[in-house]
Amino acid sequence: MRVTTTKSKNSESFYITKSYINDAKKSTSQIIRKLGTLNELLAEHGPTRDDVMAWAREQARIETQKYKEEQQSKLVQITFYADRQLDYGKQKFFRGGYFFIQSIYYGLQLNKTCRKLKAKYNFKYDLNAILSDLVYSRVLEPCSKRASYKTASEFLERPTYELYDVYRALDVLGTECDFVQSEVYKNSHFLTERNDRILYYDCSNYYFEIEQEDGSKKYGKSKEHRPNPIMQMGLFMDGDGIPLAFSLFPGNANEQTSLKPLEEKVISDFGCSKFIYCSDAGLGSESIRAYNHRGERAYIVTQSIKKLKSDEKEWVLNKKGFKRVSDDQPVDITKLPEDDNSLYYKDEPYITKQLDQRLIVTYSPKYALYQRTIRNGQVERAEKMLNSGKTKKNRKNLNDPARFIGTFATTKDGEVAEISHYLDNDKIESEAQYDGLYAVCTDLLEDDVADILKVSEGRWQIEECFRIMKTDFSARPVYLQNENRIKAHFLICFLSLLSYRMLEKKLDNKYTCEQILKTLKSMNFAEIEEQGYMPLYTREKITDDLHEVCGFRTDYQFITKRQMRTIQKKSKGKE
Questions:
Q1: What pLDDT, on the 0 to 100 scale, is given for residue 66?
Q2: DSSP 3-state assignment of 232?
Q3: Could you tell me the sign of the dihedral formed by the alpha carbons of 259, 265, 270, 271, in that order?
Q4: Whole-angstrom Cα distance, residue 396 to residue 373?
Q5: What distance, in Å, lies between the first and last C-alpha atoms of the chain?
Q6: Which of 141, 154, 149 lies closest to 166 in space, CA to CA?
Q7: Residue 79 — φ and ψ, nearest 5°?
Q8: Where are the beta strands (DSSP E) in 432-507?
Q9: Residue 26: helix, strand or coil by DSSP?
Q10: CB-based contact 298:276 (threshold 8 Å)
């Protein structure tokens, strides 16, 4: 450190400054201490300027010595021996990415929920330690419960329980599944404001690695067409894409019957009574719409255009009457260019036996081009099938190109003499008339169309929730057999998804799921000669943001064991 001065017209000021190399690899300086002006310092350290400068240089020497002592206290010296082998069976590698999920887990006060369950059942094992480890493992290394126990042994905080305790805990978690969900919802308000004025609902199925039906594991419709029994999940999500509640029901049950029991639970246990229900057409039947037309609830659901009555379908397919959503200006959609990115709509009253509704139809040139491109490719494949003579239809695939192949039978003497196939242009034109069109129904008769459509467009987030749970968190296949433990398995997947989504929201949705999970999985540490830990990950903008939103840092060159214990406490909300 050195003494620097600055002069003005009437005074001269003395400073102690430190030179250093900044992040941009450029030399710069920083003022450490302002000593005062020459006139002020002459009175105490004079009588001449040389006397003041000598005193200032001594102060700089003192500051330099103090800085060196501080740096020395931070310096960790570790001795390595080139001829000494590793200790046998000594773990050196530790996972640390769970700290960031842990900050959400404890923010949801799940430790207090586990404490309530322990008071109720009076078990001896640590339910909070088991549940938290299962949630962290599901995010970082999704696998079986046995393998999750092994994964947890690589955390910086090792398991304090045995493997058999995990299965005992699953029995309790399955029994108290609804209670845990309601507690988590209430506590989530301490972490963030919940957008529960809009609730999205959807269902998905999960297959089991068994061949025979058992309990709620039944054969049912599955997109994968697997020859395995399935169980279905109904999921509510709030307007920000954060899971709210879930329920399980048999694989052979109609998904529409799953809604009311779960919605009643959300209304009674969660206290959500005023919201807009939003779903696709499959979960928007007349009875479901009527149910959500009661009290302070409303609905916005997708409407199948093909299932409308003939006069309403004729109105939808009529190209006249459309307006631009952004400014309500009338537009002739037949004259729009293919690359137009705007959205257009028209609406009219839609009255059924039970409800006075509003039918809103939108047209997107961009979506129309997409559908036309996909269909043209399917028509080409249909022509190839005709040329090759392979015209068998796959009835399970609604997008099978063979649907464009028609059949014509030639008879002779009252019997079929020949069967020929042709490209069905009428079928192609029939599908083409729906290009770019999309319809929703709602009982919000006076609300702005743009606001209604914005709510409806948010349904993609609940589909992403199921994708994350199935793909990134490997919620299927399910290997458990006991129904209570199966329920606990899905509760763990739900809590993992909830924790991840809350972390994603704290990061302002700046990063993709792949980026966040990849980063968390990479944030590992190596223990160095029992003195502390060295981070093994690369510091990036995303790691800086993770540390910033969670309130602690692990990106130092070396972390002493004492510092690591402090980090662990901070990740649990403890100072």
A1: 86
A2: strand
A3: positive
A4: 22
A5: 35
A6: 149
A7: -100, 130
A8: 437-442
A9: coil
A10: yes
Amino acid at 276: I
Which residue in the block uniquely carries the two structure tokens 């919940």?
A: 194
Beta strands in 332-467 (DSSP E): 344-351, 356-363, 405-412, 415-423, 437-442
Encode burial over 131-167: b for 16+ CB neighbours within 10 A, e otherwise.
bbbbbbbbbbbbeebeebbebbebbbbebebeeebbe
**Best CA proximity match to 492, nearest among 61, 25, 135, 228:** 135
CB 381 within 8 Å of CB 388: no
Give the number of other CB atoms < 10 A from CB of residue 522.
Answer: 16
Name the stretches of the chain with pLDDT < 70. 72-73, 75, 210-214, 217, 222-226, 395-396, 412-414, 416-417, 575
Question: How does DSSP assign 34-79, residue by residue?
Answer: EEEEHHHHHHHH-SSHHHHHHHHHHHHHHHHHHHHHHHHHH-----
| Nearest 10 degrees: Cα torsion 500, 502, 506, 512 | 40
The answer to whether the Cα torsion of 502, 506, 512, 517 is positive or negative is: negative
Q: How far is CA 29 from CA 4, 18, 26, 58, 65, in A?
A: 11, 5, 10, 19, 18
pTM attached to this predicted model:
0.82
Q: Which of 379, 405, 383 is nearest to 394 (CA)?
A: 405
